[in-house]
Amino acid sequence: MSVMKRLSMIFKSKANKALDKMEDPRETLDYSYQRQLELLQKVRRGVADVATSRKRVELQINQAEAEAAKREQQAKAALSSGREDLAREALARRSTIQTQVADLRIQYNNLQGEEEKLTLASQRLQAKVDSFRTRKETIKATYTAAEAQTRINEAFSGISEEMGDVGLAIQRAEDKTAQMQARAGAIDELLASGALDDFTGQRDDIQAELDRMGTSNIELEIAKMKAELGQAPAPKSAIEQGQPATQQQHTQQVRQPGEAQ
Description:
By secondary structure, the protein is an all-alpha fold.
């Protein structure tokens, strides 16, 4: 296949696809219906023209018959007057008129038959046009519904794809949020345990001492539990006074020599 033929085939293929996209079946149906109405109008005009011609011939027949009757009366009047020559002339003219009437009747019958055929054709065409109009509207309604359904399906399809991306984004956001929460919780625990120094504000020595006392109170509770279990004597005076054991030992160490132990 030559290059030109291939290019021509490609061009025609693309042109057909473009035409398919541009073509709206509803517009095509409306155009076809309009063409049928135009043809129906032409047939009706033809029926009207034939009917007019038939009526004209009918008037000519009536006039010719009236003329023939007149010539017959003239022939009778001429014979009554003894003018046989005039009577013959009148009868000759009547004969010519009668011949014309016969021709006119043949033409009239032909026109009448043509008018009946065209009238029947017009009625049949009218029925077909009416049927086509009903079918056209049904097809248009079905096409419109299918078009709307296609748009809805395409919209749902697009939403489904977008929702899939949104779902992934939500999952990533939830994972990142969980990581941040876990990290924040771990930092809070490290700060509470003292593993990390809090540099966000100035250090408070009073609060630090209270925190250490809280830890000593734990040691005091341990010693008390051991005493209850009989494992070791409890520092009674320290327990009653609520002082930490470490503080009591420190007090004993700072006594002056010679004091009662």
